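--- STAGE predict ---
source: upstream dedup step, 1 unique chain passed
mode: sequence only
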Amino acid sequence: MRRLTRTVAAAALATALALVSACSSGSDKSDDAKSAGAVGMEKVTYLTSFGNFGRDSYAWVAKEKGFFKDAGFDVEIKPGQGTGYVIQTIVGGQADFGPIDLTGGILQLGNGQAKDFVAVAAIQQRTMAAIVSVEGKNIATPKDLEGKKLADTPSSVVRNLFPTYAKLAGVDASKVTWVNGEPQTLMGTLASGSVDGIGQFVVGQPTVEAVTKKKPVVLPYSNVMQDLYGNALITSTKIAKEKPEMVKRFTEALLKGLEYALANPQEAADILKRNVAATNPAAAAAELQLMAAYVRSSNSGTALGTLDSGRVAKSIALLQGAGALKQNLTPDQIIDFNVAPKA
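--- STAGE serialize ---
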């Protein structure tokens, strides 16, 4: 009888301990989940290209849809501030991956302003760089920019590529005034009337209209520079050299997010809204719809992310011909073709 009593008591004690353990686990569920999720996962910091707009929502899609997790990554997404900032942050070791305008990267590398980074995939097959104004500013052609005031971040490709664009478009760049702005406030600056135009991607039209309440006027750089790529995913030369398979896995996961976002623009916009409270879902979805035409082209066929050595060589030659590069470059100096998707 005493044996039975001891057995029952022991069972009761075990049950009580199990309940206490379960309650304890429940109270620390988030921490345990994080620990479990981190086991075997490689932590990666990713920068967006320029703030948090619809055009960059594919990274959030890749995270929320589990594409990063399936590839073995625990990804933290932070807002970038243009090509120069993204390069500096990645080369400095504060981030691992991020998109830059490839032409901007060529300018930075070819003029000795940056080094130790490589592009590993194309996001857009054509440049989306543009000057964006609104009706009422008397801007209809590139020549109309003379005498006007434009705003952009100092490291933006739109601003840094402007002298080349101006030369090819017949604009006297010395007659255009640039002032500094931040990614998230540029459109507000345009809406306030304090500037005549801003550096922007062509896909920013819906967001510009939503903020300014006016019809945008867009001057795409691609009208005069047709061979230039748009954004390209970069990493540090060190990571590409030491972890090529990791780079390939990350690139594949990100491109899955890009493909899904383009096929489901409204869902992608909603995902961005859940992660970035200031998002305008309608404008974000419209940006993705406009971006689709730039992600695939006759050069890339149906494959996403491809980079072609011949096209990059043409871009370099165009910039050299315009006097925009101080140093000679080859495509292999800006692209790691060992890890990049093949055209």
